[in-house]
Amino acid sequence: MSHPARVDNFGAGPAVLPESVLLEVQEELLNYRQSGMSVMEMSHRGKAYEEIQEEAEARLRRLLQVSDEYEVLFLQGGASLQFAMLPLNFRGEGSEAAYVLSGSWANKAMQEAETTGRVRIAGSSKEQGFRSIPTQWNTKESDAYVHITTNNTIYGTQWRQLPEKQSVPLVADMSSDMLSRPFAMTNFDMVYGGAQKNLGPAGVTLVLLRREWVQQAVMEEVPKVMRYATHISGKSRYNTPPVFSVYVLGKVLKWLESMGGLRGIEQLNEDKAGTLYTAIDKSEGFYRGYAQASSRSRMNVTFNLASDELEQKFLREAAESGFVGLSGHRSVGGCRASIYNALSLEACSRLAEFMQTFRKNN
Ligand SMILES: Cc1ncc(COP(=O)(O)O)c(C=O)c1O
Questions:
Q1: Of the candidates 312, 306, 218, 251, which has an alpha carbon nearest to the alpha carbon of residue 26?
Q2: How far apart are the C-alpha atoms of 327 and 324, rounded to whole Å?
Q3: 143, 159, 189, 197: which one is catalytic?
Q4: Is residue 193 in contact with ligand 1, taking CB distance under 6 Å?
Q5: What's the fold here for domain 23-257?
Q6: Separation CA 314–CA 300 (nearest Å)
Q7: Ligand 1 pocket check for 80: Cβ under 6 Å
Q8: Ligand 1 atom 2: the closest Cα is on which residue?
Q9: Mutate which of 175, 204, 245, 330 to test ligand 1's pocket (most atoms within 8 Å of Cβ)?
Q10: What is the per-residue pLDDT across 288-332, written as a single tens digit (0 to 9) for each?
Q11: Does domain 260-361 sit in CATH 3.90.1150.10?
């Protein structure tokens, strides 16, 4: 029952949001709960916003089953700022931080850490063109932490099975699969991700941190605004938070609960991905999946056609048929269908059908 003007949005982010959430936002836009103003216009210190943020945090904790051993932060600056904050807060003088290189974003996280200290590569799938998640990787007792990227947005690979607890703190960039499936937070010391793919509008970054770990951090040289401790004691309001993004995020979390929580959304995401991978695998080589089958992402389905020209034709005709955002990342080309939480199974079925028709005609 989608609005007639809306397209099937396969964009990689900022990405599709649940239509019911957009309608609720529209309804409340001019006058949020009799306040006479929009959430965009209200003080981040006022009661109305305080409730919005507290409710969002409570929903997030329920969905992820996160205990109060963990802090929840709503920050600005995207995952990219976390690339910088993480080593500043947790590497400590003279020690090394370990990174598993599974794609471009993992590499960017490591490069940012390299600007302020020592890093080491714990494992890599670069030699395999990042078509798979590294199967071989290691930690050393001396590592300050080990960092992984759970879903590689550009290459379309995903840690299907997340690692167990490590002997050193485990940190994950979950920017492109956070809250798309259940996972055990207790195995991690920190997870983070921008909201703009699975969870809401751009502008807010979720950071979950083990409290004990933050307490151990040595902070003398770190600017105050870059310390997790600052944002924890300021309850994510040390400076002005992205109030509107947090408000919409809260509504998306409520929508997630109505979808059966993380188990419910996981099943839906499996079905959606299955629909597209089947279309690829049954095409007798017309569509070629980029990722190795065992590392295939449930969030970003990457594929190529036989030539550049054919890919361009595919993308053009897809757009004309209302399938938007299917071109691959500018660094790798090809095609990519991003199928985050809010994209419907029906949209994936329509795309699979379009792929079949395009193949027959070409
Ligand atoms: C896995 C991953 N990490 C980090 C980022 C960068 O996020 P941001 O633009 O929020 O800094 C992205 C963006 O697409 C991503 O996909």
A1: 251
A2: 9
A3: 197
A4: no
A5: Aspartate Aminotransferase; domain 2 (3.40.640)
A6: 18
A7: yes
A8: 175
A9: 175
A10: 999 999 999 999 999 999 999 999 999 999 999 999 999 999 888
A11: yes
